[in-house]
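Hi R.,

Here's the chain you asked about this morning:
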Amino acid sequence: MKRCSRCGETKPLNDFHRNRARPDGFQSQCAECRRAAQRRYAQTPKARAANRYSSRAAWQDPDRRLQKKMKGTLRYASLRLERSQQRAREAYENDYLSGV
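And here is the predicted structure, written out as C-alpha coordinates:
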Protein backbone atom coordinates (compact mmCIF):
# COMPACT_ATOMS: atom_id res chain seq x y z
CA MET A 1 0.00 0.00 0.00
CA LYS A 2 1.14 3.52 -0.78
CA ARG A 3 -0.27 6.99 -0.23
CA CYS A 4 -0.77 9.22 -3.28
CA SER A 5 0.92 12.62 -2.90
CA ARG A 6 -1.81 14.31 -4.95
CA CYS A 7 -5.16 12.95 -3.74
CA GLY A 8 -3.90 11.64 -0.37
CA GLU A 9 -5.63 8.26 -0.70
CA THR A 10 -3.87 5.05 0.27
CA LYS A 11 -3.92 2.65 -2.68
CA PRO A 12 -2.32 -0.67 -3.64
CA LEU A 13 0.97 -0.52 -5.56
CA ASN A 14 -0.82 -1.72 -8.71
CA ASP A 15 -2.39 1.74 -8.91
CA PHE A 16 1.03 3.44 -9.25
CA HIS A 17 3.26 3.53 -12.33
CA ARG A 18 6.83 2.25 -12.04
CA ASN A 19 9.69 4.71 -11.64
CA ARG A 20 13.10 3.16 -11.06
CA ALA A 21 14.60 6.49 -10.06
CA ARG A 22 12.41 6.63 -6.93
CA PRO A 23 13.58 4.85 -3.75
CA ASP A 24 10.50 2.60 -3.61
CA GLY A 25 10.36 2.08 -7.39
CA PHE A 26 6.97 3.75 -7.95
CA GLN A 27 5.68 7.22 -8.87
CA SER A 28 4.58 9.45 -6.01
CA GLN A 29 1.19 10.10 -7.64
CA CYS A 30 -1.31 7.36 -8.43
CA ALA A 31 -2.08 6.56 -12.07
CA GLU A 32 -5.46 8.32 -11.90
CA CYS A 33 -3.91 11.56 -10.66
CA ARG A 34 -1.12 11.36 -13.27
CA ARG A 35 -3.70 10.91 -16.05
CA ALA A 36 -5.71 13.87 -14.77
CA ALA A 37 -2.56 16.03 -14.61
CA GLN A 38 -1.61 15.00 -18.15
CA ARG A 39 -5.09 15.87 -19.43
CA ARG A 40 -4.90 19.29 -17.74
CA TYR A 41 -1.46 19.94 -19.25
CA ALA A 42 -2.58 18.85 -22.72
CA GLN A 43 -5.23 21.59 -22.67
CA THR A 44 -2.72 24.40 -22.05
CA PRO A 45 -1.65 26.61 -24.96
CA LYS A 46 2.01 25.75 -24.28
CA ALA A 47 1.39 22.02 -24.74
CA ARG A 48 -0.71 22.50 -27.87
CA ALA A 49 1.95 24.75 -29.43
CA ALA A 50 4.75 22.31 -28.57
CA ASN A 51 2.83 19.41 -30.06
CA ARG A 52 1.97 21.37 -33.19
CA TYR A 53 5.59 22.47 -33.72
CA SER A 54 7.16 19.09 -33.06
CA SER A 55 4.88 17.20 -35.42
CA ARG A 56 5.19 19.80 -38.18
CA ALA A 57 8.97 20.17 -37.88
CA ALA A 58 9.62 16.46 -37.95
CA TRP A 59 7.79 15.98 -41.23
CA GLN A 60 8.81 19.15 -43.05
CA ASP A 61 12.53 19.22 -42.34
CA PRO A 62 14.38 16.36 -44.06
CA ASP A 63 17.26 16.57 -41.58
CA ARG A 64 14.89 16.14 -38.63
CA ARG A 65 13.15 13.25 -40.37
CA LEU A 66 16.51 11.58 -40.96
CA GLN A 67 17.54 12.28 -37.38
CA LYS A 68 14.42 10.61 -35.97
CA LYS A 69 14.86 7.62 -38.27
CA MET A 70 18.57 7.01 -37.79
CA LYS A 71 19.40 8.59 -34.44
CA GLY A 72 22.24 6.84 -32.69
CA THR A 73 23.59 5.02 -35.72
CA LEU A 74 27.10 5.41 -37.06
CA ARG A 75 25.74 6.01 -40.54
CA TYR A 76 23.72 8.97 -39.25
CA ALA A 77 26.88 10.63 -37.90
CA SER A 78 28.61 10.30 -41.26
CA LEU A 79 25.54 11.63 -43.09
CA ARG A 80 25.43 14.64 -40.76
CA LEU A 81 29.10 15.35 -41.45
CA GLU A 82 28.53 14.98 -45.18
CA ARG A 83 25.56 17.38 -45.11
CA SER A 84 27.44 19.99 -43.11
CA GLN A 85 30.34 19.80 -45.57
CA GLN A 86 27.89 20.16 -48.45
CA ARG A 87 26.35 23.25 -46.83
CA ALA A 88 29.82 24.74 -46.32
CA ARG A 89 30.67 24.13 -49.98
CA GLU A 90 27.41 25.75 -51.09
CA ALA A 91 28.00 28.76 -48.82
CA TYR A 92 31.52 29.13 -50.18
CA GLU A 93 30.28 28.95 -53.77
CA ASN A 94 27.48 31.43 -53.13
CA ASP A 95 29.60 33.95 -51.22
CA TYR A 96 32.98 33.85 -52.92
CA LEU A 97 32.64 32.36 -56.35
CA SER A 98 29.57 34.35 -57.38
CA GLY A 99 31.51 37.61 -57.01
CA VAL A 100 34.28 36.44 -59.37
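One quick note: The mean pLDDT is 82.

Cheers,
M.
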